[in-house]
Amino acid sequence: MTPPFALSALRMEGLHVTSSPSVHAKGASLLDSAVALTRDTERAALHAGLLRTLGEMLPLSEVRLAERGELAPGAPAIGGGSWHLLPLRGPDAPHGKEIAVHLGSDSAEDVSVLHGFLRLYRNFLAVIEESERDRLTQLRNRRAFDLRLDGLSAQLIRSRRHATADNAYWLALIDIDHFKSINDRYGHLYGDEVLILLAQLLRQHFGEHHDAYRYGGEEFAALISARSDKGARQLLERFRAAVEGTEFPGVKQVTVSIGYAPLEPGKAPPVIIERADRALYEAKGRGRNRVVDVNALLGPAANPDHGPREWGDIELF
User: How far is Cα of residue 17 from the mean position of the Cα atoms in its chain?
Assistant: First the structure.
């Protein structure tokens, strides 16, 4: 039996959702989960507003998450009607998933109305996504980074787990060494080219399963998942070595310094950023072109299993 539609704000009588335990907690509305997946007010409002309007205008009978490619747009549904698809995008959207909406009507007019709303939805989504892109590098920007880090931190607080195979994340701050000297010596056009090529390397190394951002100026950020601290360090060392081994037009060799810190339950995003920044500062102080783990600086006390969890300076019990 499918659970009742739980978004009371939408008030769609008769609309139900298909349960998917792998996506959300047992008994929760699937659409509740789908709308919340981005942890982004704008996207959540866009999803909710669209579905509320469609539920009032059209005979929608089911909404569920589907694997991308599982259903073709307009695919016929058992019992009549057809399936129509809404893309799920954003910092926390599940890879390879989309929202499937079952239109219980075979009316060409109803299908036309639905398609018109979906086009409008995609246009609004494109505007939101454009606001989260850095124009020069086309990486996601600081706004998108803040949303993603907030979402991961909230997820860890809810789960109260750390460093498990399924739920271990690290924040790495990456700074181009002597970037001011590059701009001063070669000019800003060459400096911009360095930023663009470095962004390409970031996408290659921290692509589908990790997130890369332009944090500001010559500084970048990566939110990575790995099974252990050793695995996170290996990822970052490979990236550092790849940058060192790349020939940048006009500039030749460029290096980066990297500081990283784990995301831990009870550590607020500003605290996580401060810890990664402390490690980055140490990497610069040790001569640059290196990777430094903040836990190596803080010692055993940095491990949350050795003491009470904290939110900044406030202990959480």
Answer: 25
Task: Enter the tokens of residue 176.
Answer: 């181009």
What's the confidence (pLDDT) of residue 200?
94
* CA 61 and chain centroid, separation: 30
Q: Which residues pair with 133 in a beta bridge?
A: 140
pLDDT tens readout for residues 140-151: 999 889 988 988
For the entire predicted model, the pTM comes to 0.68
Class of domain 142-316: alpha beta
pLDDT tens for each residue of 267-281: 899 999 999 999 999
pLDDT in tens, 18-42: 433 233 322 234 444 444 444 456 6
Partner residues linked to 235 by β-bridges? none
Q: Domain extents for the chain? A: 16-130, 142-316
Distances (CA, A) of 303 to 92, 163, 252, 267: 26, 11, 40, 12
Residue for token pair 């998942």? 225
Of the residues 62, 98, 218, 219, only one is catalytic, namely: 218
Give the torsion through C-alpha atoms of 64, 65, 70, 74, to 10 deg: 50
Res 127 pLDDT > 60: yes
What is the Cα–Cα distance from 14 to 55, expressed in whole angstroms?
A: 9
Catalytic residue at 132? no
**Average pLDDT across the chain, whole number:** 77
